[in-house]
Write a structure and sequence with these properties.
Blueprint: E1 2-7, E2 9-13, E3 17-22, E4 25-30, H1 34-40, E5 46-49, H2 55-60, E6 67-69, H3 75-84, E7 92-96, H4 99-107, E8 111-115, E9 129-131, E10 137-141, E11 146-151
Parallel strand pairs: 2-5, 2-7, 5-6, 7-8, 8-9
Antiparallel strand pairs: 1-11, 3-4, 10-11
């Protein structure tokens, strides 16, 4: 089910860089879809929230360092990130992969797309849309609002109720 989502900013409250052991050496790799999406979002319109996120990590995988908020994903850290990006919380889209992060985004009155990568889609049904991975989210426009095309799972999420449901 394809949907268009408009927002002022995108917050990544999900894993974007994976550090994996490879032949006894830790290697850093972007989560599938994260690199493509982050590269298409203009500077100052996206932020990554997480306790283990470091801007230099993104440069190590040849990705432009995004705005980073080093904190656990919570209502307050999401609101802080929106403030740093000078975005109205109601016009911010949060990408999450944990039910607790989904609840935090809801408490901040933000739009939510949940990734069914770590939990079953049913556990994330409180999101506006649920997708199988970040590969299902594409930036297709950036002025004046960000426009994302989302290939969501059918019959899951609050916005899945019919083709003309307002976003």
């Amino acid at each position: 089910m394809l949907r268009l989502v408009e927002c002022q900013a995108v917050l990544f409250g999900c894993r974007t860089i994976a550090v994996r052991p490879e032949g006894g050496i830790l290697t850093q790799q972007t989560t599938p879809g994260a690199e493509w999406l982050l590269a298409r979002l203009p500077p100052g319109r996206a932020a990554i929230i997480g306790p283990d996120q470091h801007a230099d990590t993104y440069a190590a995988v040849d990705l432009r360092p995004p705005t980073v908020v080093q904190a656990e994903v919570s209502t307050s850290s999401l609101l802080l990130a929106a403030s740093v990006l000078r975005a109205d919380p109601g016009d911010v889209l949060v990408l999450v992969d944990e039910p607790d992060h989904l609840r935090s985004a809801r408490s901040a009155d933000m739009k939510v797309i949940a990734l069914a990568t770590r939990h079953e889609a049913e556990a994330l049904a409180g999101a506006d849309l649920v997708v199988p991975s970040l590969r299902s989210v594409r930036a297709i426009g950036v002025h004046p609002l960000l426009v994302l095309e989302v290939d969501a799972l059918p019959d899951t999420g609050r916005w899945s109720a019919g083709p003309n449901h307002p976003l």
